[in-house]
Amino acid sequence: MSSMETLILLIEGKRAERPSFFSGLTRKGFQVQSVASGSAALEFLKTRMLQVVLIDAASMRTSGKRICQSIRESNPAIPIVLIVEKTIENLEKYGANAVLIEPFTIQKLLNRIRPLLPPEETNLLRAGSLALNVEDRWVRANGRQVKLTPRLVDLLKILIEHAGEVIERKELFRMVWETDYAGDTRTLDVHISWLRQAMEEDPRNPRFIKTVRGEGYRLDIEK
């Protein structure tokens, strides 16, 4: 199992009167696995490696101390972010790397999470669940991390930068190949096919890179 498949493990209860952080994090491009208890988190951590554990103790009406300490005992190095409803004394004994007291914005949560990520995770170009590392030339999609050629990186980078927009075939060709000549765009179509093979679970029925008949291509991402 790749350590890149799940980025954040979210431990949260089900309180109807408050929103989950799951959707906010996924909209920001993070891969998130949600569990409802500390024991479920410990079981998950036995089989998966990830980058951050987010404990929403406020959603479970607890201080989060026992969950923090049990995770820290079993996984000493993993970063932990703890969310609580009010200031708690002796929080340093909990073992969390960062603590947030409600209320706060999703941006403030991201500001606490990002410094805890491995360096490569902070330099990714993201679109929904897609992540592109331009320097190291790989894309992460559908739980897989695949190496790309420099040309495919250039192509995907432009699609990500214009996510949700239709890019006319000749214009996309000019942008990627940096040329004014666009008389034959079959080369572009071949590279789109290669990119789909790298990213898509079913390249013939693509989830991300859509063909807009008579116009060009569009990168679709989850809302």
What is the 3D shape?
A: elongated
Q: Given this structure, which CATH class of the largest domain is correct? A: Alpha Beta
Residue share in β-strands: 15-25%
The name of the CATH architecture of the largest domain is: 3-Layer(aba) Sandwich
The secondary-structure class comes to alpha/beta
Poorly predicted regions are 1-5
Describe, in plain words, how this protein is organized in 3D:
This protein has helices spanning 21-27, 38-47, 65-74, 106-113, 150-161, 169-177, 186-199, and strands at residues 8-12, 32-35, 52-56, 80-84, 98-101, 125-127, 130-133, 138-141, 144-147, 166-168, 209-212, 216-219. With 223 residues, the protein is an alpha/beta fold. It has 2 domains: 8-122, Response regulator (Rossmann fold, 3-Layer(aba) Sandwich); 124-219, Arc Repressor Mutant, subunit A (Orthogonal Bundle), CATH 1.10.10. The strands form 3 sheets. The protein has a 5-stranded parallel beta sheet, with helices on both faces. The protein has a 4-stranded antiparallel beta sheet with strand order 6-7-8-9, with helices on one face. A hairpin with a 4-residue loop joins strand 7 and strand 8. Helix 2 runs parallel beside helix 3, helix 5 packs across helix 6 and helix 5 packs across helix 7.
